[in-house]
Amino acid sequence: MDLKHLRTFVAVAELGTVSKAALRLRIAQPALSRQIIGLENELGLTLFDRVGGRLLLTGEGEQLLGSCRRLLGYAMSFTDEARELRRGDSGVLKVAALPRMIETVFPTFVHLYAKNYPNVQVRFIEGIGDRVLGMVERGEVQLAMMVDAAFPTGDDRFGSRPLPPVGFSAAHPNLLELERRRSIDIRGLAPYPLLLLDTSFVIRKRFDAACRLAGVRPNILFEGSSPHTLLSLAEAGHGMAIIPSHAYYVRLHRYTLEALRLTYEGKPLQEPLSIFWDKRRSLARYAHDFCELLAAHIRKINSIPQSSSGFRRARAKRK
């Protein structure tokens, strides 16, 4: 059914004559008459009675007029929504990420993103490992954040944008002997009982590999699935917690702990991180800008010096 014929039907019904409807719609009267006849033939109904120089709605025509107006309204709304989507500044953006990223990175970032795209609704979905790429491939999300090591090599179905890498922090209630330093080499962990994420975490594999290269046999006291558990145990004096950097995962100011950046041979120990999407699907401008703005946000929070002084001040206030 041609929407032009429906608009013609409404115009004639409202104005009562072919001539007036033709002026409103800016078409020739013979063409308008053919549209009315064509619509009546398609529906198998007589929509107008010809009385003198006017066209009056039949009973069937009156019943269909309201539905026709609603249908045209829906079509207009559909067109307006498509126009907004073409502009690339409104829509729904679904993003999959690790729970700890959702907890710490996104609460502040979403407010910043909303200043640029107030008409985009961002929805976060928790996902880990292969599940995340499955969500992207099935179209359940448009974007997914994950460490590069969890991405299958040689898979060219996905596009990606590198993000600042995930670093590592060593958190302990008392690191006074290292108070003038902002980092600790992985070899310096030998004297401490360690509280680690378990081996199901990709970033744990990075830590283990660095230990092997450094010739360090870590003294593992506890392995867990939550950085908060590790930090609580460290706060109670049970060992040193090795966690992803606070800029990504946990807010160390909740704890009376001191923290140092973990390094290997003078370089920060890091795990590459990216945001992925399915190249077979078009990505709106607001989704591309989400990636760029997120990278800038992470760079900014990473630029905040990670030293133990802030945590000592927090502990002093609690006392």
Characterization of this structure:
The chain is built from eleven helices and 13 strands. The chain has three domains: 3-86, Arc Repressor Mutant, subunit A; 90-163 and 273-302, Periplasmic binding protein-like II (D-Maltodextrin-Binding Protein, domain 2, 3-Layer(aba) Sandwich), CATH 3.40.190; 165-271 and 305-318, D-Maltodextrin-Binding Protein, domain 2 (3-Layer(aba) Sandwich), CATH 3.40.190.290. The model is unreliable at 306-319 (pLDDT under 50). The radius of gyration is 32 Å and the shape is rod-shaped. Helix 8 (202-214) links the parallel strand 8 and strand 9. With 319 residues, the protein is α/β, with parallel strands linked by helices. The strands form two sheets. Strands 3, 4, 5, 6, 7, 8, 9, 10, 11, 12 and 13 form an eleven-stranded mixed sheet that branches. Strands 1-2 form a two-stranded antiparallel ribbon.
